[in-house]
Each structure stands twice: as C-alpha cells, then as structure tokens.
Design goal:
By secondary structure, the protein is α+β, with helices and mostly antiparallel strands. The chain folds into three domains: 166 residues; 63 residues, SH3 type barrels (Roll); 127 residues, Alpha-Beta Plaits (2-Layer Sandwich), CATH 3.30.70.100. It has twelve helices and ten strands. Strands 4-3-2-1-5 form a five-stranded antiparallel beta sheet. A three-stranded antiparallel beta sheet has the order 6-8-7, covered by helices on one side. Helix 6 runs antiparallel to helix 9.
C-alpha cells in the first residue's frame, strides 16, 4: 500500500502545489494589472506563468523523488536526477528569458504611448530589440554551459579547457573576425541612432523599409514586398540614404516636358485643385514653375509634399497622371511636338505636313496661342 500512496503523495503533491502557486501568482498579477492601468507590465508578466510552473514542479520533483521507495527509482536514481536537473536548468533559462522579454516590451510600450516623436520611438524599439536578443543569447549560452557541466566527463575536461581558453579565444577571434565585426556594428547601429526599425532607406538603388535589425544582419522590405538581407557592417562602412532621419516628411517633384505654348498659369490653378482632392498630400507646400527651356520644349516642375515616402509617391503619380490628362483634354497644343523635314529629292510637303504630335493626332491650337516647332 505504501508503494502506491507514497508516489501519489510525491507526484500529486508536487502538481497540486505547482497549480496552486501558479493560480495565486496569476491572481495577484491580474489584480495588480487592474490597479495600474498606466503600465502593461503586470498584464504581460502573466505570460511567465507556464515557465514558472515548470520550474516549480521540476524543483519539487528533484527534491522529493528520492522518497519514492520504488525499485525503478533506486536503480536509475542518478539518471533521473540528471534528467530533472537538465529540465530545471532549461526551464529556469526559459523563465529568465520570458521575464526579460516582458520587462523590455512593457518598457517600450509605456515609452511609445508617452512619446509623440515617431523617430525616438523607432530608435527605442531598435535598441530594446537588440537588448532582448543579447539577453536571450547570453542566457541560452549560460544554460547550455550549465547543462554540460552536470555531466562528470565535462567537469573533468573543464580544467584543461580553462587553461587553454586564452589561446582558443585568440584563434576564435581571428576566425570569426567578420562575425564579430557585424556584432559590434549591430550595437553601433542600435545605440548610434544610424538606422532604426521602420526607417525608409535606399541601399544599392533599392528603396524599402527597415523591417528587422539583429546583431548580424538587417532586413529591408522593398516596395514590391521583397526582403533584402544585408550585413549590418554595410551600414557602418558605406553611405546610404535614410529618408526618415530627422522626420519622415518628404518633398517630391514632378517634371513635365511641354510645348512653349503651355498655359503655365492655368496649370498652377489645376495643380492646386488636384492636390486639394488628393488625400495623400499633407498640405504643407506646393509650387509649379518653369525650370528649363530648349528650342522646342520647356521643362515644368511641380513640387509637392507628403508625410512620408509612401504618400509622396502617391501624390507624384496622381499629379503626373491628372495633369497630363487635363492637358490632353483641354490644352492639347501644350503637349510637345517633333519637327520633321522632307527627304532630299522626295515629296515636298506643305506646312501642315511638317509637324506631328507625340501624344497623338495633331489638334490645331487656338489662334491666341503661338505655334512652335515648324520646320
């Protein structure tokens, strides 16, 4: 009878204590979360309940499994103790990583809600992400080392390993020079405020948004949903464009090649109407001016603004499309023409045959508009 009751008391008691402690901790965290609405820490700490219960249950079983008066336990006492120790170390590392991640995310969430500057929020997000990754790597390394040292053979080898640690460190440093350079570059990017998660950058002619920053690589999501993975050392050794640094607001230009007869004043009025109907325009500034001229055309530049790179692209496309459509429908004479001349000895064409319009069939201009581009 004792061989049945004792295992039930040991195993069942450990499970009951684990569930009871987990329930009490969850209850206290839930009440603390209700009292402190200004911080999400207490609510996020509830996510640490599973690793906490695993640690508690494993510790109780590790301390009490010797009380099981069973032949199987006596014969494999060392193996069972070794297994429970390994589980306890792994669960403890899991708990530490989960607590650290919770604290980091809670701090970032509180800072993000109290700060109105998007650039600072992105900078802090990049920093806390790298801090979390460093903590995870360090805790995992320590946990693996502790698990290996539980084996007697590893403890025997440990002395000789420590004796040659200096030489191994030098060799490893030389062999992993590129990797270590990327690691230090990752810290430089995170705390040097060079590039942040969410920044709009141009690297190697590719325009995209920084999606992920790690200790060794940086991922950029392009406008067509591709991902470009680059070593972080690239951003510390080569120049690149960061359109979000100093603010995400941008100014864009639209260039139009038109005939000298183009109604510039009317185009300004039309540009104002187009921007008034464009939701992507932020209303900060706009202008339209003739910036260059050639014997056959003039260059008209429209300047528009938007709150970020995505919106400036939308505004530029809308202005270009609607302005060309308006000119084609109401002022076709403003579209550029190409002057032609008859071939020597060929058919001699009249004035009406010496010009063609690039945008389509020729439409005569009004009498008040001067005609250009004749041969």
């Amino acid at each position: 009878m004792e061989n049945v009751v004792r295992p039930l008391l040991v195993v069942g008691g450990s499970l009951v204590v684990t569930l009871l402690v987990g329930w009490l901790v969850d209850l206290l965290l839930r009440r603390a979360d209700g009292r402190h609405d200004e911080t999400p820490l207490w609510g996020l700490l509830r996510l640490c309940r599973p690793p906490l219960q695993v640690v508690l249950c494993t510790a109780l079983l590790r301390a009490s499994f010797g009380q099981l008066r069973l032949d199987v336990v006596r014969d494999h006492r060392a193996g069972i103790g070794q297994f429970l120790t390994l589980v306890l170390i792994a669960a403890s590392a899991w708990l530490v990583i989960r607590v650290a991640a919770t604290v980091v995310h809670a701090s970032y969430a509180r800072y993000a809600t109290s700060t109105r500057d998007p650039a600072r929020v992105r900078r802090v997000r990049t920093q806390v992400t790298l801090i979390q990754r460093v903590v995870t790597v360090v805790v995992a390394t320590v946990a693996i080392a502790a698990m290996l040292l539980t084996f007697p053979a590893m403890r025997t080898v440990g002395t000789s390993l420590l004796a040659s640690a200096g030489v191994i460190g030098i060799v490893a440093g030389v062999a992993a020079q590129s990797t270590l350079g990327n690691v230090f570059a990752g810290f430089q990017i995170a705390f040097g405020d060079m590039v942040r998660i969410g920044d709009t950058v141009v690297v190697d002619g590719e325009w995209g948004t920084v999606e992920e920053v790690t200790l060794t690589f940086l991922a950029v999501r392009t406008w067509d949903e591709r991902r470009i993975t680059m070593p972080v050392s690239y951003f510390t050794s080569r120049p690149f464009e960061n359109w979000s640094r100093g603010g995400a607001q941008m100014t864009g230009t639209v260039f139009l090649q038109l005939d000298h007869a183009a109604p510039v004043a009317a185009m300004r009025d039309r540009l104002r109407d187009i921007l008034g109907e464009c939701a992507a325009w932020d209303g900060r500034d706009w202008s339209l001016a003739v910036t260059d001229t050639t014997p056959t055309t003039i260059e008209v530049r429209a300047v528009v603004t938007a709150k970020d790179a995505n919106d400036i692209w939308t505004v530029r496309c809308a202005v270009r499309e609607q302005m060309i459509t308006w000119l084609r429908e109401h002022h076709p004479y403003a579209l550029p023409r190409v002057a032609t001349a008859p071939a020597p000895g060929g058919h001699r064409s009249g004035p009406a045959d010496t010009e063609s319009v690039l945008s389509g069939p020729h439409v005569p201009a009004p009498d008040r508009a001067p005609r250009t581009g004749r041969g």
